[in-house]
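In response to reviewer comment 3 from the previous cycle, which asked for concrete evidence that the modeling workflow produces usable outputs, we include below a single protein chain processed end to end. The sequence was submitted unchanged, and the resulting structure tokens are shown without manual editing.
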Amino acid sequence: MLSRTNEIIRSVTEIHLATRFTDPPFSVREFSKYYPAFQFQASTDLPAGIDGQLVVQDGRNYVFFRKGQSHVRNRFTICHEVGHAFLHVEEEAFKCDAVEHRGRDYFLHRPIKEQEADFFAAELLVPLPMLDRFVLDDLNTVKEKEHQELVRVLAEKFMVSKPCMQLRLEDLNDIRRTTAGRGVYLKRA
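The workflow returned the following structure tokens.
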């Protein structure tokens, strides 16, 4: 767990409330209406291996993302860079490897600021309480084929990659397991 997990969830929740985000997918366009200091632009000038960049200048946040990437990858990259703006404003520019998740081991070996921005993006795009509304089954009892179909369907609904959705489902399962019977985090409708 990241040391700033609660701070990240609090920031993301404020964004969700401000943008009136109640059903997937999260809208970057709506975000721009409520946070006009952000501008998003596709770029062909990013160095190889760099999918996104945040430049903070004169009170504005310029988010550049790699032109030609898939729509879901660009959404994650944009939200990752927004995370840097909310969490790491002390620096003037960020150049980071905002790639899709490649599993927990990859995630855990990235610099802490990149892990925080990844978590911010995942939470912004797929908040666990919202995901919980769409996952009625106990994930431990779902057969592999059904699980893969669930990942596919939910990835489409939330407009994220399948690897991102797989990790969010793992997070949801962990939360359900650790809070079972305590009614702490997620309340089922």
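Residues 97-102, 181-189 have pLDDT under 50 and may be disordered. We consider this sufficient to address the reviewer's concern, and the full set will be provided in the supplementary archive.
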